[in-house]
Specification:
Keywords: Lyase, NAD
Family: Belongs to the NAD(P)-dependent epimerase/dehydratase family. dTDP-glucose dehydratase subfamily.
Bound molecules: nicotinamide-adenine-dinucleotide, 2'deoxy-thymidine-5'-diphospho-alpha-D-glucose
Catalytic activity: dTDP-alpha-D-glucose = dTDP-4-dehydro-6-deoxy-alpha-D-glucose + H2O
InterPro entries: dTDP_Gluc_deHydtase (IPR005888), NAD(P)-bd_dom (IPR016040), NAD(P)-bd_dom_sf (IPR036291)
Strand order of the largest sheet: 3-2-1-4-5-6-10
Protein name: dTDP-glucose 4,6-dehydratase
Structural class: alpha/beta
Number of helices: 13
Helix content: 40-55%
Strand content: 15-25%
């Protein structure tokens, strides 16, 4: 079996759902259930004996030691993190605690467990760390995309905390020999994406007649990947990645934020036209920019393609249609995540009028 951390969140829950659909191998899911962790994401797995959920912190040494002892997983996949850049600007402390100290404690538990294994189990064991393209910093309009050898230059407390964890993971391979793998992926979108992030925020705000906030001039560029493609990349790296290596994961799909929002609005015009017949893009509102906002990210994903044969299945056009449709089909999920705590965040970030 495998231990997956943070799998009540956006990508982790998609990963576990896909994993269990495609393999008979059981999963222990360790998640603290912060505001971003949502057991509802996993409700279709209720009654499935292959999924064991444990509420807890990756930084809790005693708990993680016990889980490793009880379940003897052949691999650990670490999704658990504080993941929202804007929240890291308002309050970096939790990001250091989970992403840096938490990852360190998790690695310490894994080191103790791995050291005690026999030679064959040691060689077969994997620790896969799920990271981000944001560790590489920002690009100019004509710069080449990030490769695995691009120097780290993180610009937000979030990306700095992720870069720190990536360095720790690397060091545990170099120093102790633990067979680690790291993936650095671009922006994901898809089902179960918490509506603090751009795409789900725009979908839910549009449907609720609220402003669609665009930071600064909206010309910041991101590379977008459908979440199921990220999950297949992680499965492939776990299966065939070379221990100690890092793999960039991306969709070859750079787009400016304003373009993304226009596309989402156009799909909503098609699927669920406004009652007054006007286009949703009338709700677009330019707001104050994010401090230290990275201008452009772009991923060179040739290594994972040439060495491991992975490439994305969805185009942005097919993935975003599925995503918008999923939000239209799941109003209860949206209503439940827009709880009191969510409203407090929206008030803090966008002001009382939002
Ligand atoms: P998310 O915020 O939706 O989910 C994070 C999950 O981790 C939640 O379920 C939360 O409860 C859990 N968690 C937080 N702190 C924890 C702790 N101390 N112990 C145990 N569980 C804890 O995040 P996501 O978007 O699903 O991202 C998952 C991972 O992928 C993160 O490491 C993130 O840096 C990385 N990543 C995300 C993206 C993206 O576009 N969302 C892209 C590249 C990489
Ligand atoms: O690149 C990978 C990263 O992608 C992950 O590591 C992060 O966990 C994930 O949150 C995401 O980070 P971003 O900051 O790129 O995602 P976000 O959805 O917050 O913002 C996407 C872009 O949209 C970014 O340029 C900021 C802008 N934006 C965002 C919000 C929430 C807006 O213009 N308005 C908004 O209201």
């Amino acid at each position: 079996m495998i231990l997956v951390t943070g799998a009540a969140g956006f990508i982790g829950s998609n990963f576990v759902i896909d994993w269990l659909a495609q393999s008979g191998e059981a999963v222990v899911n360790l998640d603290k259930l912060t505001y971003a962790g949502n057991p509802e994401n996993l409700k279709n797995l209720q009654g499935d004996a292959r999924h064991v959920f444990v509420q807890g912190d990756i930084g809790d040494r005693a708990l993680v030691d016990q889980l490793l002892k009880d379940h003897a997983p052949r691999a650990v996949v670490n999704f658990a993190a504080e993941s929202h850049v804007d929240r890291s600007i308002h309050g970096p402390g939790e990001f250091i605690q989970t992403n840096v100290v938490g990852t360190f404690n998790l690695l310490e538990s894994v080191r103790a467990h791995w050291t005690a294994l026999g030679d064959a189990d040691k060689a077969a064991f994997r620790f896969l760390h799920v990271s981000t393209d944001e560790v590489y910093g920002t690009l100019g309009p004509d710069d080449a995309p990030f490769t695995e050898t691009t120097p780290f230059a993180p610009n937000s407390p979030y990306s700095a905390s992720k870069a720190s964890s990536d360095h720790l993971v690397r060091a545990y391979h170099h120093t102790y020999g633990i067979p680690v793998l790291t993936t650095n992926c671009s922006n994901n979108y898809g089902p179960y994406h918490f509506p603090e992030k751009l795409i789900p925020l725009v979908i839910v705000n549009a449907l609720q007649g609220k402003p669609l906030p665009i930071y600064g001039d909206g010309q910041q560029v991101r590379d977008w990947l459908f979440v199921k493609d990220h999950c297949s990349a992680i499965r492939r790296v776990l299966e065939a990645g070379q221990p100690g290596e890092t793999y960039n994961v991306g969709g070859w799909n750079e787009m400016a934020n304003i373009e993304i929002v226009q596309k989402v609005c156009a799909l909503l015009d098609e699927f669920r036209p406004r009652a007054d017949g006007k286009p949703y893009n009338e709700q677009i509102t330019y707001v104050k920019d994010r401090p230290g906002h990275d201008r452009r990210y772009a991923i060179d994903a040739r290594k994972i393609h040439t060495e491991l044969g992975w490439k994305p299945v969805e185009t942005f056009e097919s993935g975003i249609r599925k995503t918008v449709q999923w939000y239209l089909d799941n109003p209860e999920w949206v209503a439940h995540v827009q709880s009191g705590a969510y409203r407090n965040w929206i008030g803090t970030q966008y002001g009382a009028a939002a």
